[in-house]
Amino acid sequence: MSIKRTEVRRLAQRGSIDRNTAYEIIDQAMVAHVGIIDEGFPVVIPMLCARDGDHLLLHGSSRSRLMRNLADGCEACVTVTLIDSLVLARSAFNHSANYRSLVVFGPTRPLRKLEDKRAALDKFVEQLIPGRSKDARPGNAGELKATLIVAMPIDEFSVKSRSGPPEDKRSDMDLSVWAGELPIRTRFGSPVPAPELEPDTPVPDYINRMIRRR
Asked: If DSSP codes are grouped into helix, strand and coil, which group holds residue 62?
């Protein structure tokens, strides 16, 4: 593992290379930001992500410039961030956020076999909406051909996080200003049916479970 790329230098006490924590961050995330160098310029694109064991999965159109670069096995940097709360201090300078973040470096490899691509797409669907892959029509050969999927090993990575109350200066403690944490929660709203859906089509149980859980 390259220490230079993964070593947390700023507030190093918040850094970690705990693999289980890295997995938890990916599994809870919906979006990753994927960075590459394309024709000499940095490019960073937000993408849906999923995990298959010790590999990060990314997918997109076979016409995508980013995906074509990734399918060629280029070096990439992928970041994932979860914001847990805003941290309000007594001074503007010491405001912060409680978060969990992950940075992964490394090469990517394309999945070529149709069965591997189909299984990877199921991973994406299940990570976002558990139970959906058994309900929706699977991708056909044409759709799979039009989709590029790459796997990136979660080997060279670093985790960084913050938790807890604000860190005010001692000289600010007597200020009459509210201070503390403002938790952030992601929740799902009421399902909105597609316009052409039959009116009596029930909302699947797995969607109702997601709403209740979040």
From this structure: coil
> Tokens for 135?
């309900």
Enumerate the domain spans of the chain: 3-166+180-187
User: To which H or E segment does residue 144 belong?
Assistant: helix 141-145
Residue in 118, 106, 101, 103 with CA at minimum distance from that of residue 151: 106
Residue 195: CB atoms within 10 A of its CB come to: 5
Q: pLDDT tens for residues 82-123?
A: 999 999 999 999 999 999 999 999 999 999 999 999 999 999
Of 183, 191, 195, nearest to 207 by C-alpha is: 191
CATH superfamily membership of 3-166+180-187: Electron Transport, Fmn-binding Protein; Chain A (2.30.110.10)
Instruction: Yes or no: say if 157 and 103 are a contact pair by the CB < 8 Å rule.
Output: yes
At 3, list the tokens. 């220490």
Residue 49 burial (CB < 10 Å; 0-12/13-18/19+)?
Answer: buried
